[in-house]
Structure formats: structure tokens, C-alpha cells
Design brief:
By secondary structure, this protein is an alpha/beta fold. Strands 1-10-9-7-8 form a five-stranded mixed β-sheet, with helices on both faces. The termini are far apart. 37% of the residues are buried.
């Protein structure tokens, strides 16, 4: 156990050095805003008083793209059982989308730049002046800022020093978390984690292993996710890793496989195809689960009698790990025993620190995304 809610079996790699640990110490000592946002000392850039008029709303619509919405969706899905309200996430362009005026939503529109094309399009289709609207964007002149003024809506300032994919524990993720009825302070666990030797040692060991895989030209980081409610977490992780490290002809390709479904599609390739993958198993130990009715099972499958769905899913995960071990396929394995704000915050922190460390050691700036701007500019040219 690296925390009370997380068990992590690290990659098996004997080679160790002090370099990664030393760089981690430097990162943690720096007063970088991104690192500070992981800490309990970090202050929210919004006053909860502004949210009071939204507390009576039962249905919320979050409109955004990428880092403006993926972290929030991860929070909502992972902690769905604790949230008593309904949240709809608009994070793509869908030609069938329509504004059904009979359905009443409070809208949260998020864009750091205030100029994201997809967000602007969805905003104009879905929102009305009569709706309860709340904007999160930078404190500068932009389309979203002007639109908020036109709709006479509140504007919360996005921290301009924290990039979208790193912003989940700042206003981008924590304001919606408050609207969900969650405790935003419980997500920020860095103060405790910097004194947790097991957590830090595991973080260092995993970074060392991934660097070793990169040297061996293993560039595919494949997530084998056995928890339906964690899909959003790994789509957030996918952006974090791909956008942070994919530069200068370097990087990792994060691939999300939802299990056990993908046993019947891509597992053959994972087991017997090209050898440039390393894997992360992810499983959440759910306490409540449907159970097989024994008298509906024929004698040929009697091993399924009285089994819960969680028993079957865990057995499939364990079986896959056993096969990977026999075939010497590199993997690490997360098992989560608590589904709460604290545990999810610890996972966010682990993956953010891991990504920043990899960027530093691969001599990549993990905080920019220059190539993405090329497509944005070209899209504007075509539409103009």
C-alpha cells in the first residue's frame, strides 16, 4: 500500500539510480504554481458565495474541451455514487446536438484562452440568457469574456499560470467539484504525500522503469482499465501524457483499453504482437456488486455459482497479470480500495508528478503544446 486507498505493484526493474529522486526533490521544493495546486495550502480562485445561486440546480451542463473538462469528467465518473446531481459533459462537436429548451440546465462554460472554437460553437447552440450561466476563463479580453458580459453571467478567472491539463486541482476541476457537493480541499494531498516514503519511492521507481522502456524503444503506455467509472480518469491521463511529452520527435503514446471487453479485440496483439508496449493495470475493489443467481447456471459452469461480478472481473485481471508475467511483458498494477476525494487526489498527484519528471529527464518541456496551435490556426484560415 502506498496510501490507505492505493496498492501499487511496481514494474519489475532492478536497475536504480539517485538521479530521478534528486530531480523530484528539486521539483517539490520549487514554488511552481502547478505543484502548489496539489497542496492544501493552495487557495481557490473563487468564492463559494458565487456558487450559492447554483446549489438549487439539479442538472448541470459542462461545456469545454481537453484540460478544461476532462479532469472534471474524471471526478464526476469516479465519485458518481457521492454526487446527487446530474452532470452532462459537452466535450466534442456533434452534428446532432440541439438545444432542447424543455430541459433546464445550469451551464458551466470553461476555456482558459476564451477562444476555443468547439467551446464557442457549443456555447452558442446550447445556452440562453435565461439560463444560469457561469464562465471560467482568463482575466483578459476574449470571446468568452465578451459572451459572459452579453449574457450577464458571472466570470471566474482561470489561473493563467496553470495549463489546462494540469488544472484539475485548481479552479477548473475544484469549482465543479463543489457544485457536485464534494469537498475540494480533500483532493489536495501533496502536503501529506511528500512525507510518505512508500508513495515517493514508488513514484521514482516507476519513472526509472518508464525511462528504461523508452531507451528500449517501448513507446506505448497501455492502460488496462478494469473499472468503468475510471474511464474518464484515463482519458484525462491520455491528454496529460500525450500533450506533455509528445515533442521534438519524442514522447509516449497512451492507449486506453477498457477491460475485460478488450480481451476480445486487442488482447491478442498485446500478448503476441509487436514488442513496444508497457502496461498499467487498474482495478477498483467495489464493495457492492451484482451476484449471479445460482439456479440459472448450468452444471458445466458451476465455478460461476454464487460469484459476484467483482469476483469475475478480479479473476480476469489476475489471470491476465499471470499470463503477462509468464510472457515477461512489463506491467505495473494499481488496486484501489477507497473511492473518495482523497484517493482520487492522490492518483491525480501521482500521474502529474510522474509526467513532469519524465519531461525533465527526457529533456522535454512538459508544459507547452506548440504543435496543437498549428491546427487551430489552419482551421481559422479554412473557415475564413
Amino acid at each position: 500500500m502506498i496510501t490507505n486507498g492505493i496498492y501499487l505493484k511496481n514494474f519489475k526493474l532492478k536497475k536504480k539510480s539517485s538521479k530521478v529522486a534528486n530531480i523530484l526533490k528539486v521539483i517539490l521544493k520549487k514554488k511552481d504554481p502547478i505543484i502548489q495546486s496539489l497542496s492544501k495550502n493552495f487557495k481557490n480562485s473563487f468564492d463559494t458565495k458565487i456558487l450559492r445561486k447554483f446549489y438549487s440546480s439539479k442538472n448541470f451542463r459542462i461545456i469545454g474541451m481537453g484540460g478544461s473538462i476532462l479532469g472534471t469528467e474524471a471526478i464526476y465518473n469516479f465519485l458518481r455514487n457521492k454526487v446527487k446531481k446530474n452532470f452532462l459533459f459537452i466535450n466534442d462537436l456533434d452534428v446532432s446536438i440541439m438545444n432542447n429548451k424543455k430541459e433546464k440546465y445550469s451551464n458551466l462554460i470553461v476555456s482558459k484562452s476564451g477562444e476555443t472554437i468547439e467551446t464557442i460553437v457549443n456555447l452558442n447552440i446550447l445556452t440562453n440568457k435565461s439560463d444560469k450561466n457561469l464562465f471560467i476563463t482568463e482575466n483578459r479580453k476574449s470571446y468568452l469574456y465578451e459572451m459572459a458580459e452579453k449574457l450577464k453571467a458571472e466570470v471566474i478567472h482561470h489561473n493563467n499560470f496553470i495549463g489546462g491539463r494540469y488544472s484539475v486541482l485548481s479552479v477548473t476541476g475544484m469549482l465543479p467539484a463543489e457544485l457536485m457537493g464534494l469537498n475540494s480541499k480533500k483532493f489536495r494531498q501533496l502536503n501529506t504525500l511528500i512525507n510518505n516514503r512508500k508513495y515517493l519511492n514508488s513514484l521514482v521507481a516507476n519513472v526509472e522503469s518508464i525511462l528504461f522502456f523508452v531507451k528500449k524503444k517501448k513507446y506505448n503506455s497501455v492502460i488496462l482499465n478494469y473499472d468503468k467509472k475510471s474511464e474518464g480518469l484515463f482519458y484525462w491521463y491520455q491528454q496529460l501524457v500525450a500533450e506533455s511529452l509528445g515533442k521534438n520527435k519524442k514522447g509516449l503514446l497512451p492507449i486506453v483499453s477498457n477491460m475485460p471487453k478488450d480481451n476480445h479485440s486487442v488482447m491478442q496483439l498485446y500478448l503476441d504482437g509487436f514488442n513496444n508496449n508497457f502496461f498499467t493495470f487498474f482495478y477498483v475493489n467495489e464493495k457492492n456488486s451484482s451476484k449471479i443467481i445460482s439456479n440459472t447456471i448450468l452444471s458445466k459452469k458451476k465455478y460461476l455459482k454464487n460469484k459476484k461480478l467483482t469476483d469475475i472481473i478480479f479473476a480476469q485481471k489476475k489471470a491476465t497479470e499471470n499470463v503477462f508475467t509468464k510472457k515477461k511483458i512489463p506491467f505495473r498494477s494499481f488496486e484501489i480500495s477507497k473511492r473518495d476525494e482523497k484517493t482520487l487526489g492522490e492518483l491525480f498527484c501521482f500521474f502529474i508528478l510522474e509526467t513532469i519528471l519524465l519531461g525533465k529527464l527526457m529533456k522535454i518541456n512538459p508544459f507547452n503544446q506548440p504543435a496543437v496551435e498549428l491546427i487551430k490556426d489552419e482551421t481559422k484560415n479554412i473557415l475564413s
